[in-house]
Amino acid sequence: MLELMVAGAFERAPVFLNRTVTPAMIRGFYMGPSVEPYFEELVEPLAVMGRRDLSDAIALSLARVRRETGLTGAIRRFDRAHLNGSMVALKRALVAAGNRESRRQEAS
């Protein structure tokens, strides 16, 4: 429905019983990893066409799925957007190295 709305064809698509899209509908939809890219590409076009309510609902839902809310989320967002996830990769490597060291010490 959102893609048709962005394309300007939603009004001409008689297959939908519900003729409106609300932020509550978006908040109630599960956004798993397989559908994230489809929703992400709708954020800007919806805002440009004056549907900031829908755009904001999608952005918030994506942030929740990606665990990018709050201060920690802002850091994750920055890492994903500007550092291609290198901070998360570094953290995982350090944790793994620490776990290996702990196991080594326990074994000795």
What does the secondary structure layout of this molecule look like, with pairings?
Blueprint: H1 2-7, H2 23-27, H3 36-48, H4 52-65, H5 70-82, H6 86-107
Helix pairs in contact: 3-4
Short description:
With 108 residues, the protein is mainly α. The chain has a domain of 65 residues. 68% of the residues lie in helices and 0% in strands.
State the share of residues found in helices, binned by percent.
Answer: 55-70%
Number of β-strand runs = 0
Which structural class is indicated by helix and strand composition? mainly alpha
**Average of per-residue pLDDT values:** 87
Unreliable stretches (pLDDT < 50, length at least 5) are none
Euclidean distance between termini CA atoms: 61 Å
In quaternary terms, these chains amount to single chain
Q: What is the alpha-carbon Rg in Å?
A: 20 Å
Question: Rough shape?
Answer: elongated
The portion of residues forming beta strands comes to under 5%
Order of helices and strands: HHHHHH
Largest sheet: none
Tally of helical runs:
6
Task: Describe the protein in words.
The structure is a single chain. This protein is an all-alpha fold. It has a domain at 2-66. Helix content is 68%, strand content 0%. The longest helix has 22 residues, at 86-107. The mean pLDDT is 87.
